[in-house]
Amino acid sequence: xxxxxxxxxxxxxxxxxxxxxxxxxxxxxxxxxxxxxxxxxxxxxxxxxxxxxxxxxxxxxxxxxxxxxxxxxxxxxxxxxxxxxxxxxxxxxxxxxxxxxxxxxxxxxxxxxxxxxxxxxxxxxxxxxxxxxxxxxxxxxxxxxxxxxxxxxxxxxxxxxxxxx
Length: 165
Hints:
Helix content: 10-25%
Structural class: alpha+beta
Low-confidence stretches: 19-24
Order of helices and strands: HEHEEEEEEEEEEEE
């Protein structure tokens, strides 16, 4: 085996491994700058910090051939997409929110980071003719065509906590 062949085989194995297990990218943290609003209006502003999700596209499902079908299933493959919704935090001064001294303080909204997985829709199409039939002189029989849509999926568990301190 030559050096070029070894390198090509190694690169092929790495590409297959990367396509089989898509990496989950974390979100990019972002702080919202509101300092200019506070100085120009003279009122305290909320502090906002969040994360921008970075979607990662995984390997599409492989079409499978079934005995008796002329077209593979699914004809249009389903593509998985994964991302992480970053932590979002909002803190704001809330003076005397309900008119009672015990509610003085800061209001906060906190949403922890969570993983979000999505799968695109797919299409299943069946041909209007079957496989060649020996009893019909090798001609295919007509069959009822089938058409179907694989529903998209969205999986995740985002949550948020709203509280007063």
